[in-house]
Write a structure and sequence with these properties.
This protein has helices spanning 129-132, 146-150, 154-159, 168-183, 201-209, 236-250, 255-260, 263-267, 287-292, 309-313, 324-335, 339-346, 354-377, 397-402, 410-413, 426-445, 481-487; strands at 10-13, 16-19, 21-23, 29-36, 59-61, 68-69, 85-86, 91-96, 105-111, 137-141, 189-199, 221-225, 301-306, 385-390, 465-469, 473-477. By secondary structure, it is an alpha/beta fold. The strands form 3 sheets. An 11-stranded mixed β-sheet has the order 3-4-8-10-9-11-12-13-14-15-16, sandwiched between helices. The protein is globular and about 70 Å long.
């Protein structure tokens, strides 16, 4: 018999019956994994907007994760098995502390990062039990990435009802949020109190969803961790040209040929720009224009960065370019006649200082400045924004070599610090607790403040205040102000 209890047992969702499991302290958290929120995007549905999930007969076990999106073989999430990666990937996972479907708890939906080329909601880093124990329903999702999440071609554009191709990654995220609206009450969640949060590509997704007319009303707050609006303004026409080259290399004569192409053959055509872009439908125009004119959804945002974002990402730069001469050439190529002033701010004194100079410059340019801009654009809205900066060096191998690196805040937010780490101190435990309380309080009330934690002021251009999450948790202001002010006129 199906009733309104939520205990890891039988639940009737729109597409069929599922059973999950119990976890957490005293088995207080119910978890349901691998729930299909859309039909498998395979065959004729490759490079199409997501279709509704296919109903099933009988009872479906929701005790195992569904496959992750197709991506390059990697150690992402500690998984190498080819069976873990599939074009059939549109699944989500739910952790809920609700004892009944009538509890009306706030909902947090996590969008994973990975540069729109890798990642999965099933990564061990994103286990939702600790956050759910703070009184929220936690949802993690997969979405199409790489060639299957971003490929554009005039054939696809002409075929589509809305005359747009690409941005399948965002279409999937929107479909997942629509699924949450229709089904989350069954898990004790409140569809009128949904917060979307993400890191890196997931963070940029949150920013873009806030500017997409298709996502309006699907969520009520957003958290952007290390990814504001950048590299998402390319027009569809330019991306279609890239698709034409891909089809030419493959010798494809039709859409059927492209849809029959293997993932490996698509990869062999060369690197794909997997970032979302302006397709005229999901993203109707440059999202920076939407934000700067105050036309995004009027919802509160938390926006933040890490002190050493680019120590990790600059490892993708060839070693021979990570030199004093290489750094100087990069600055001159980008800034022309304005290069001397920019270079003088970051100029390394020795070859040994190049890595730190590149980290400081790239972190300012690619992360902190876009985050500050986004927070300032929010002043046109009635909803507030809250800016933060993560400066704690995690006691891990990554922290030892990379500092307060890109993604370093994630284990704190998910309550995942522990045995595999090095010398975890009271500072780390306190910081993780603070992150979880601020984030879940924001999900509950649209404001991170409340309880015993330091007051987190609303950001304005005038006060230029951010919350510092480091060895201390305290508000500070004028984050990298002189550097950002100097870069502002020259960075798109």
């Amino acid at each position: 018999m199906i009733n309104n209890k939520v205990d890891g047992g039988l639940i009737q969702i729109e597409s069929g019956k599922i059973t999950g499991a119990s976890t957490g302290t005293n088995n207080s958290i119910s978890v349901y994994k691998g729930i299909p929120y859309a039909a498998p995007p395979v065959g004729n549905l490759r490079w199409c907007p997501p279709e509704p999930a296919i109903p099933w007969e009988g009872i479906r076990s929701a005790s195992e994760y569904g496959p992750a999106a197709m991506q390059n073989p990697s150690n992402f999430g500690g998984v190498k098995d080819n069976d873990w990666r599939s074009e059939d990937c549109l699944y989500l996972n739910i952790w809920t502390p609700a004892a009944s479907s009538e509890e009306n708890l706030p909902v947090m939906v996590w969008i994973h990062g990975g540069g729109f080329t890798m990642g999965a909601g099933s990564s061990p880093d994103y286990i939702g039990t600790p956050l759910a124990e703070k009184g929220v329903v936690l949802v993690t999702i997969n979405y199409r990435i790489n060639f299957f999440g971003a490929f554009c071609h005039p054939w696809l554009t002409r075929e589509a009802k809305n005359h747009a191709s690409g941005n399948y990654c965002l279409m999937d995220q929107i479909a997942a949020l629509q699924w949450v609206q229709r089904n989350i009450r069954l898990f004790g969640g409140n569809p009128d109190r949904v917060t979307v949060f993400g890191e890196s590509a997931g963070s940029r997704s949150v920013a873009l969803l806030t500017a997409s007319p298709l996502a309006k009303g699907l969520f009520h707050g957003g958290v952007c961790q290390s990814g504001a609006l950048r590299d998402v303004s390319q027009p569809l026409e330019e991306r279609e040209k890239e698709g034409l080259k891909t089809a030419q290399i493959l010798g494809a004569k039709s859409l059927d040929d492209l849809r029959a192409a293997s993932y490996e053959s698509l990869l062999s055509t060369g690197a794909l720009n997997a970032n979302p872009m302006v397709d005229g439908w999901v993203i109707p125009e440059d999202p920076r224009t939407i934000y700067s004119q105050g036309r995004q959804h009027d919802i509160p945002l938390i926006i933040g960065t890490n002190k050493d974002e680019m120590t990790l990402l600059q490892m993708t730069i060839p070693k021979e370019k990570r030199t004093m001469d290489g750094f100087k050439q990069m600055i001159w190529k980008r800034y022309g006649e304005n290069a001397p002033a920019i270079y003088a701010m970051y100029k390394p004194e020795t070859e040994e200082g190049v890595a730190e100079a590149m980290n400081r410059y790239a972190t300012d340019c690619e992360m902190i400045l876009p985050a500050r801009r986004q927070a300032r654009w929010m002043e046109k809205m009635t909803a507030n924004s809250y800016l933060y900066h993560f400066t704690r060096i995690p006691p891990t191998k990554a922290g030892e070599f990379l500092g307060s690196h890109h993604g370093g805040e994630i284990p704190y937010i998910f309550g995942r610090i522990g045995p595999k780490w090095g010398n975890v101190s009271g500072i780390d435990n306190k910081l993780s607790h603070a992150f979880m309380i601020y984030w879940t309080h924001f999900a509950k009330f649209g404001d991170p403040n409340g309880g015993e934690l330091p007051q987190w002021p609303v950001y304005t251009k005038e006060n230029d205040i951010h919350m510092n999450f480091g060895d201390e948790i305290k508000p500070d202001n004028n984050l990298r102000k002189d550097y950002l002010d100097s870069l502002e006129p020259f960075v798109d």
